[in-house]
Amino acid sequence: MYIFYATGEFINAISECTKAIESEDNTEEVSAYLLRGWSYGDQEKHDLAVSDFSKVIEMNPNSYDAYSGRASSYWAEGNYELAISDFSKTIEIDPENKKGDFGRGTAYAAIKKYEVAMSDFDKAIEMDPSFSAAYYLRGKYLSSIGDYASAINDFNAVISNNPNFESAYFNRGCVYVAQVIMN
Amino acid sequence: MCLCSSGNNELGIIDLQKAIVINPNNADAYLWFGNAFANSKKFQQAISTHQNAIALSNDAYTYCVLGVTYTKITTSHQLLLRLKVGYKWTQKMKWVGVCLHWKMQNKELLPPESIHSDLSAHLQEHGPRGNYKLIGCQIAAKRIVGQVYNNGGSIIIPL
């Protein structure tokens, strides 16, 4: 099941995981639920993914991977409040992992709670000063509130790490142009 | 201020060109590239670039910007015709309707805040692109309203 998942053969991975879950030998049960949850997520079957991740959480209430996977599936389904709750749990379990703060920031941004989203992006960037995705989203927010100079700094950071990132050029270009007009 | 503004506009042009080179189907990049030309008062190039954006996206907002840009290159004699054309293009955009309606009827000068409020309501439907669209619409509204203010509210265009 691991190889199928690693090679992107998700349908086969799901089938193998199901066999492992139904087997009397339950030594790989947690891994099988987790792997099947990720596979369902990759197949965009998020309700099934949530169910599997929830099963893992029942068996291991401190599973970072399960909370993280379930948060992503909630996010994909548009259940942002639940995603925020699960991302918060991942931060509690592993406070040094930037992905929790970043994920929660994107969920806050999705429900227009931009100030808290910014705070999460700030923390993610503090943990990893080369975290382009966080710079990019923070830059987009800063540009939307008219803080053009800070937005440009963030897009500069993105472009220096990803010289072919079209959206960063586009957004920085828009900010330069908007800056001129708004002045 | 002028030198600084001009410099930023040039930087914007460079970035937007780069975005278009990486993805020639980015209609929004053409739209803002056109806005940059309009900033430099290169209105024919702005129009041509906005037309490229429309060819890619057939987006109502771009029609609106194009309509506004057309008003920049017309004489007062031609303005009525251009506004009528612009209005046809942009009839789905409430705020342009509001602006043009005032111009056409010469009734009441709507404060920019009222137009911005209409913009915000409309643009909430635009999702992630809304932010830039909002900025863009504010810019366009500012131009239109500014034009009215600058003329002492005396623009009268009979239908």
Kindly summarize this structure in a few lines:
The complex is a heterodimer of chains A (183) and B (159). With 183 residues, chain A is an all-alpha fold. Chain A has helices at residues 2-6, 10-22, 29-42, 46-59, 64-77, 80-93, 98-110, 114-127, 132-144, 148-161, 166-182.
Describe this structure in words.
The complex is a heterodimer of chains A (183) and B (159). Chain A has 183 residues and is mainly α. Chain A folds into 3 domains: 61 residues, Alpha Horseshoe (Serine Threonine Protein Phosphatase 5, Tetratricopeptide repeat), CATH 1.25.40; 65 residues, Serine Threonine Protein Phosphatase 5, Tetratricopeptide repeat, CATH 1.25.40.10; 53 residues. Helices cover 79% and strands 0% of the residues of chain A. Chain A has 11 helices and no strands. The model of chain A has no long low-confidence stretch (mean pLDDT 91). Chain B is mainly alpha-helical and 159 residues long. Helices cover 76% and strands 0% of the residues of chain B. Chain B contains 8 helices and no strands. In chain B, helix 2 runs antiparallel to helix 3. The longest helix of chain B is centred in the N-terminal third of the chain and has 21 residues. Chain B is flat and about 30 Å long. The N terminus and C terminus of chain B are likely disordered. The chains are: A mainly alpha (183), B mainly alpha (159). Chains A and B meet through helix 9 and helix 11 of A and helix 1, helix 2 and helix 8 of B.
